[in-house]
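Researcher: I'm preparing a figure for a lab meeting and need a structural model of a single chain. I don't have an experimental structure, so a prediction will have to do for now. The sequence is pasted below. Please return the structure as tokens so I can convert it later.
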Amino acid sequence: MGLFDWFRRLLKAPPPAPAPVVAPAPPPPASEPESGWHTGCEGDTLWVLDPEGKRRALQLAHLHAVAIQTSDTGMPGNDLWWLFYGPDEDVAFTLPGGATGEGAMAERIAALPDFHHDLYAAAIRSTDVDTYVIWQRPFD
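Model: Understood. Here is the structure written out token by token.
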């Protein structure tokens, strides 16, 4: 056997088979934090059910204001929050944008007199940290 026989055998050997291409596993579905929240209207009552099962409700007659608080995170469920103010002008309850039933609830609020459609549109498009008062009970 010669000094370079190993090299000749290497040159004559068939090329190694390419490793099979395996597509990476898809990432697990992202948890949607807003999916655990439910909201709606029953007659003249707005309600929210949080992920822990706690229900809060407020009659429209006792609603003082509705605001949307936006953030600059861009993360689903965290980019906007609805704020509902009760008769004492404190927050009665909140819920994230994207909550189940949000569309029907938003339609009911949009039907209130003096609803600010322009501020609502600005709020849902916002990418800044801000608070938009989209409806407020008129002062007597």
